[in-house]
Amino acid sequence: MAAQLNLSGPPDSGLSSLTDQSMSSRTSNRSLRVAEKERRKNEAEDPSVLALQYFYNVEAGTPVNGNDEVERNLVLVEQVAYRNGLSPEAISIMLEFAMSLRMGHSLCPRVLKCLIPVTVVPQEAVVRGVSWLGVGKIPVSTQVLFIKWVLTVFDMIDAKDQLRAIYGFIFSFVSEENLCPFICHLLYLLTSKQIVRVFRVRKLLELQSKLGRQPFLLNLLSLYKVFCPELVTLSIPSRSKSVFKNHNMPWKSALFAVQKRNGSQVASSISLASASKDGTNRRKRKHHHLEIPVLSAVVNKQPQTETSRRLVPLVQIQSVAELLENMDHIELPAQMGSLLGSSLALQYLDCVQDESALLRLNFWIGYALHEELLFCGDGASQNSEESLQFLNKLLSTQHFLQEGFSSSDAFLYKFLNVWDGSLLRPQILGLLSNIPVIPSSQIGRLLFEPLMQLFFTSSVFFKCGLIECLSNMLLKWLIWHSVYALEDDLDISLNSHTSINMTLSGFKDSVMGLVDFVGRLASIGLQLEGCHSLLLSFILDFYTMVCDTFLKYGLPLVVMPPPGVFYPALFATDPVSVDRLAFIMYRYKVNLTSAKSQEKLTEQAFHISRQTFREFNNYTVYMVNCLWNSKMFQPGMGVQLREELLLKSNVPQYWTSFDLVHHPAFMSYAIDFHQKCWPGKKDIDLDSIKHSKPWSWYLEYLFSQGYDGLALFVQSNIRAGQGNGQQGDSLST
Amino acid sequence: MSDARSEKKRDKLPGLNTANILLVESEEQFQKSLADALVEETAVTVYVRLAKSLPLPKENEESRPRIDLVVFIINLTSELSFQSAEASLKYLDPGYLLGKVCFMVTNARNVSVPTKRLDAVRKLAAALHCPLLFAEDQTSDGVTNATKRLLSILKVSAGLVPMATALYLSSLTSCTVPPRHRPAKLRLAPVFSGGVSLNF
């Protein structure tokens, strides 16, 4: 590998690139004065090329002390480095000079400190530098300095394939106590799925038992765990606050200065990379953390390897066709967060077989969410705009991929426990509705307990929002079921990328749990909010989905609404709610009848409990009695009051209070109808509508107002042509 | 609790369409902005009383109205704040614990909060069957929301919501102690390898 380093190349190629640059700029700048300035600059740079030549050719063993030539040349190189940065070739030469210890180790740190790249760092130089570490003559402090330098310029290294190839070699330095934190960081940046092996995990664990639970070891292990959860059984504390904060980066300010002066393209990506990777400047990192990095190539120029498998950086891919062509050799960006911003990258993520890309993205998302929303610094309020953007991006990504990220789910379970119910509410509820099916044994602890506390102490709008969110959650679960349910063994694999497998009965338990929970929230919520009609509307949305689980989503399950939802809807003052309830009851009937007929046809069809039929019959009979037959208080019905109490209320003909004519929701229609039917009549007698003829006209009139649910309910439950006074039929159990 | 008479509620009658809330916070930071927002409520006359700690001074005891809800505000970044709330609780008439006390916690998402302190607050609230509300005191939206939530509890505990009592609401909202952090040796259940077990 070291042999590939192009040592025979012209040592002044550093100059050639510089002159190229100045040539091009000269053509654009016609001004004489500028040209003059350029020329003077070029002259000034000439000696630096000579200086580089000196360091390239200098013999091993040349003394340092009293050697003015070295001093002069080094100062020249330093000047160029701090002003403009060093070209890739110059970096190779100087790094090689320093690491080979040709002039002893006293100059080494000084040389390393001035290695400020102008564009990229050649990978070969870094690999060669690493190989010199193995020789063992370099003092430890210099070794540390070298690794720190590699970490600083990591995103500027032009390719990473050879560095990954010597992962094992780099790993061997882990046991050196002083190097370990920095080596761990470097390994962290280089790790990919194939690299995680049992012996490496074992080595790290062994080190951990020696050194204690060091954050750098834990971070590397946690990354290993992301790639291969089966190899790392150790539990990683959730509060590992800072990742690799051990670098004081002597180059950073110089690097920024040089790049600012050059205004180069690399600058933006580097500033982000270094800002998010080292923890020295916590405040700075705060502001950059949730920014989604720009999709940038790790490889700025093509790696000069002879292998046929050329890696194509994702950023260079412009169309789906190109993506398909290069599917098998795509180089992922160094910052996985950048994938969120590109729809092509998401396409790739969606169809690639290798899991590591998704795992890396998942890891990044989880880390970012935890750091920004769970363990924030003092200025928590400042970055709310950033959090908002980030969560919106995450939501649209989840929407695009049509699945959630397990790390965002894990984050939500924790976040719900400290949420105030208003911070980023639409986004949090959106993420919440994307949560995949939770086993019924866990669902209460993870979701229901925190949500219940929030629900009952928050405003009616939060209540509506939560009910809507849970409706969406149920909808997604039901769709997953109908898509992934295998016909043979009724096993559902819910998510192509995770190993959650569930039996049908397990899935049914979870759905039941969710529906029951919403039923509980809905009943008590309606009671506390005085049957708020907006809340009722969201609740009826939910039951419009629940009543159709069997026919629409193929889930053999029928759950009736609790009385706390049924009766408020039936006695609601707005006709829309009553109409929707009638539609829901109609759909229940269709579902139950079809389930029953299937039960008769095939033996193994699912069994609906008698209780469900009884509930359904009770509700239907009550509804028909109430709306149609004007018999509100029948013995054995859901609502019962003693006769004497009803008489005491002094309501005339109390039994008719909620029939289709007197129901508060429909009374205005009845009066309107009465006026149209008998325009001459001064005193309105609503009871006259109940005679056979006007009754059927009245129904027609009502249905013509758009109350289709009511029409369907009447058609399916009341025998045609018999007019007033008919008992609704009911399903037999 | 022989000297715990300072906060009795039985011997005073509620006023018509009014609600009294007592905010107890040792640091006296958040209670001011909360109080300003609380008195804005128009549907009910809300009287806000502020205290640094309990017991309340004896001198105004007679003129002090009946308190419908006692809110202990705890800043999680400060151990003192928690200790002060804990100490104040001793001076509270036990009758208040039937739904007329709630805890409001700020700074829960701060990195400098030790997990143990949050757990201790949770345990305290759970042991007393009181709701535990989290609030964002740094932003105006957070304060508004916290106010709304307090009002919704206050209205119930002051008897202004038909069909609901303080005890009933507190049975629905009382804090539960969340699951313990998993012990280090425990192997995570395979069902959740892609799910909740990923805690970094």
TrEMBL record, chain A:
It holds the Pfam family CENP-I. Keywords: Centromere, Chromosome, Nucleus. One of its GO terms (biological process) is CENP-A containing chromatin assembly. Residues 33-44 have a biased composition (Basic and acidic residues). It is found in: Chromosome, Centromere; Nucleus. Residues 1-45 are annotated as: Disordered. The keyword Nucleus applies. Its main location: nucleus. GO terms for cellular component: inner kinetochore; nucleus. Residues 19-31 have a biased composition (Polar residues). Residues 1-18 have a biased composition (Low complexity). The keyword Nucleus applies. Belongs to the CENP-I/CTF3 family. This is Centromere protein I. It comes from Champsocephalus gunnari (Mackerel icefish).
UniProtKB/TrEMBL annotation, chain B:
GO terms for cellular component: chromosome, centromeric region; nucleus. Keywords: Centromere, Chromosome, Nucleus. It is found in: Chromosome, Centromere; Nucleus. Gene3D superfamilies: P-loop containing nucleotide triphosphate hydrolases. Its main location: nucleus. The keyword Nucleus applies. This is Centromere protein M.
